Amino acid sequence: MYICRIFNRFTNKYKYMNNKLLPVLFGFFVMGFVDMVGVSVSYVKQDIGLSDTLANLIPLMVFVWFAVFSLPTGVFMGKYGRRYTVLVSAVITVAAMLIPLTGSTFAIFLLAFALMGIGNTVLQVSLNPLVSDVVEERKLTGMLTLGQFIKAISSFLGPVLIGLAASKLGNWTYIFPTYAALTAISFVWLYFTHIEEGKTASKQTGFNVILGLLKNRRMLAWLSIILLIVGFEVGLMTAVPKFLQERCSLSLEEGALYCSLYFAARTLGTFIGSFLLVRVSPRKFLLLTLLVAIICLTFFAFSSNIWVLRICLFVVGLTCANVFAIVFATAIQSDAPKADAISALMIMGVAGGALIPPVMGVIADAGTQFATLFVPIAALVYIFTVSIFFIKSK
User: Fold this and answer.
1) 9, 101, 165, 168: most buried by Cβ count inside 10 Å?
2) pLDDT per residue over 273-297, tens digit each?
3) Contact by Cβ (8 Å): 290, 383
């Protein structure tokens, strides 16, 4: 009898979470699929025989849409709702994952990754605000952190699954139908989940409202950090397999596993950050971790010892794990009534993934993979400097 009472109390307490929150959190797992683009560049380059400049256009085709579609998605979301917008993103993502099944040409890959970028843009703009409709306000920060942790798990699994598909099944592109099926499950689960919106939703998400935020110097600074931290990560994951081929003569599959090492560290870093950020100043935490990341990435660029490379890459992933979450939360909390508009603006910064890889590709073709690593190092130095002035202590 006593055990039954405990069970009933437990199920009653978490019934709301099971019915409402879990399908929303699963959306963060789908959100992580886009991070496969970094390691995919090396495989597309190898399969088709592309130069680094052309191969690094693939991240451009993914992330440029964050600049194009973030603001229209914010307006669309204000008119049709957050849940409906998330469902639209799932449809676009499934279509993107099915396109590579029709062939393996450069044009097909560009189209697939472009649609993937559009779908992920719509998802990122709408999913974070949707969390606020299924949890209490006091739990929102914790749930958003949990969502980033789930996304990090998905990002970590991407290179592993691609490597397994390439080595065991003979074709890395089998990752696409797998992701299509998972996205379809996400769509069905959320479609049959009734969510009442309106508790925190703001209808003030027109273009004028969103663009008006750019008059705020701090908002511009936060946007620039998001722009560069995403570009840093995509650029680094694009360069790592090729850098290790050049520096340590590793195979492409072995080099790609180092991307999983990075994402495993980022997953752990997000998990640790969810506890530490409750107890320490986000500003101090951010500055300390960025300083360590800059030092370790510099050692990574100059070392040829395989264990030093592993440790440095792991520490870089660990220390950079919470930059996006800290800056995004800082921006959202700065003006709660405009949370939807701020979300659209900040997600526009994810377009940074389209800026750094092409620059690194040109440098690689003109020199070496070693030289390209100074681009992400410079990005971290900029983020560290700007954070000193525009991230407040709490």
Assistant:
1) 165
2) 877 877 788 888 899 999 999 999 9
3) yes
